[in-house]
Design goal:
six-stranded parallel β-sheet; DNA-binding; alpha/beta; homodimer; 12 helices
DNA sequence: CGGAAATGTGGCATCGATACCACATTCGGC
DNA sequence: GCCGAATGTGGTATCGATGCCACATTTCCG
């Protein structure tokens, strides 16, 4: 407010009034007890008589006391902030995941520090370092590199990997049941008479793509159909690329149905089919893994596998909190969230 | 759970190895200087010779030192965490907003603590209290209640309101240029010969809805068209409700075009039009404020007003950081982010 | 009814980094 | 060659809450 100190300080004046916030001391004085007692009365369970507790709480309320998390964290060497590292918040998959995580964390009294790493290993690692600096007790990450979860764990931070697994990490992990989901989806098409099914996929090194591919193969095997390897079209994680890849696939091969391995690729595939004025599902069926809202808004609505993304997020958070609270045995946990086939208008009988 | 007593600690053993992290002291020893010097060499500008600075940084690197933000924050009475309070991460509008905010914050060396308040005043207020406890220097909020920004400011926290303004708050605010955007959109329809345009809108008390409604009216006025008040259909912020409201509107009145005030309402409107098998835009034109991805995927693609949501997020963050750094005059800032009309296939000439 | 156990509260040191001041050195100018 | 300024570094107190121990008081039981 007024220039503090007697000599005119050259520092740009604080825009905001400093606002002295009440401390434990102030509450103690107000309630007529010691600071220790205040601390116990407000937070620690037990160790304070109901009378005192009530008095302290009233006093705290009265003077508007709010615990300083920084001080608390420093002293108790923990924090109630949880790091969440995802690739792209603008992708509804990640947004849903984050929403689920946040909901559960908040319910447990934790805060979510959200970082977008844009799928870039360098940004991911730097974010991890920041989280280390914040002394977060745990991190939920959709990993880009195995190095990141590794580094966090080496520093005593609990890690839950979401959606995918890189190599065999030592961290807990929550996955969609990719194999079953993809198999179910593929079988749905096979049952409709499709024998030449294209698969548009971006990666198969992570558990996610690998699982979906495995499910695709398994469905074929179960039905005594050979997989034509040429119909598995590898592309990059990008709608435009997916569109071009789809174009090439359709130019070079006959397919009666097309599966895209995720919501982004589906955009590209759909764009190409529309561009070709192909009647869906009369001339070609289209289906996608990972149900997102637009898929039920387009005409015809897309048949998809709903991987319960929000629930997946909740699972991640529940698992992490249980770990932090020490409620789990040291053994690594793997949670598979069931995937559900949602049949809509975009899939139909194979053209004769 | 178990009777807490001193005998036989019932507390589950810590799952994680404690992991002693190096402190400033350790770095000091390693580099052969004092802790004070380490602190200055690593963070404060000036006050350390290049030689020492290099030596200290090398030492820090070598032993894997990471500053403890809690300690730093406590001592320096600040924090590099910024609170972000939004209504619904699953709505692409908020997700984009958050993505823009996060990007800019991270670039400035800040972290984003994201809280979903679900549009609930109680949750919002509680979240604000948590942020107070974290001693965040600033908060970006899409306010539900004026009380929340108020309370934060009273406690010396800088606040930027995003997307809307409640009453005349004292906080900085970043808005879409709702009036211009809505006017442009409406004029586009009028130019196509539409004279009976329906407006589907959820609220007009906040600046957002009020602005869009004002733009709608202004466009009519500019073209010497009277607004038929019956064509302004008030609904609630919910796709299903919007659908029912649309149904009622179409049952009761003739309209040749329909504008929905945001992306959620657009879903309901579109669903109803499809249900009625109305040819868009031949029989009725449809347009929406707030362009989100699905709007260009549906057939026909929707004419919209793109409010540059990501950029809006970035603006919020830039404004807040400038405020925190004391670079701004005390005067309250209002930033209007331009809105851009995007004409697609869903709007066409008015039927005969 | 006495002593041991249980119970509740206060005192004090501490978490780790940094603000601030004191001081040692170097440097420049006359 | 001397003195005052400039520069860089070390020492120490401190931010605010809490863990731990000591101790006063009450309760319990033989």
């Amino acid at each position: 407010m007024s220039p503090r100190g007697q000599a005119a300080r050259a520092v740009p004046p604080p825009t905001q009034a400093p606002v002295r916030r009440p401390t434990v001391q102030d509450v103690a004085r107000e309630a007529g007890v010691s600071p220790s007692t205040v601390s116990r009365a407000l937070h620690t369970r037990g160790y304070a008589s109901p009378a005192v507790r009530a008095r302290v709480q009233a006093a705290a309320e009265r003077i508007g006391y709010v615990t300083d998390h920084n001080a608390r964290n420093l002293r108790s060497r923990t924090s109630t902030s949880i790091g969440v590292l995802i690739s792209d918040l603008r992708n509804p998959f990640y947004a849903d995941l984050a929403a689920g995580i946040e909901q559960e964390l908040r319910a447990g009294g934790y805060q979510m520090v959200l970082v977008n790493d844009n799928g870039d290993p360098a940004e991911e690692l730097q974010a991890a370092e920041t989280l280390l600096a914040m002394r977060v007790p745990g991190v939920i990450v959709t990993p880009v590199t195995a190095k990141c979860p590794q580094m966090l764990q080496d520093n005593g931070v609990h890690v839950v990997c979401a959606d995918r697994e890189l190599g065999r990490s030592k961290s807990d992990v929550v996955l969609s049941d990719n194999e079953s989901g993809a198999r179910e989806l593929t079988e749905h098409l096979i049952a409709l008479g499709h024998a030449r099914i294209g698969l548009l996929i971006d990666e198969t090194k992570w558990s996610t793509g690998a699982g979906r591919l495995a499910g695709f193969r398994a469905a074929h095997a179960d039905n005594d159909l050979a997989v034509d390897e040429d119909l598995i079209a590898y592309t990059s994680f990008d709608a435009d690329a997916a569109r071009l890849t789809t174009r090439k696939l359709l130019n070079d091969h006959e397919v009666t149905a097309l599966i895209s391995a995720n919501n982004v690729l589906a955009q590209g595939a759909l764009a190409e089919l529309k561009d070709r004025r192909l009647k869906i599902p009369r001339q070609i069926s289209l289906a996608a893994y990972d149900d997102v809202p637009w898929m039920s808004l387009v005409q015809p609505a897309l048949t998809t596998v709903d991987q319960s993304t929000v629930e997946m997020g909740r699972s991640c958070a529940r698992l992490l909190l249980a770990r932090i609270r020490g409620e789990l045995t040291p053994k690594r946990r793997l949670v598979k969230v069931p995937a559900r086939l949602v049949v809509r208008g975009s899939t139909g009988p194979a053209p004769r």
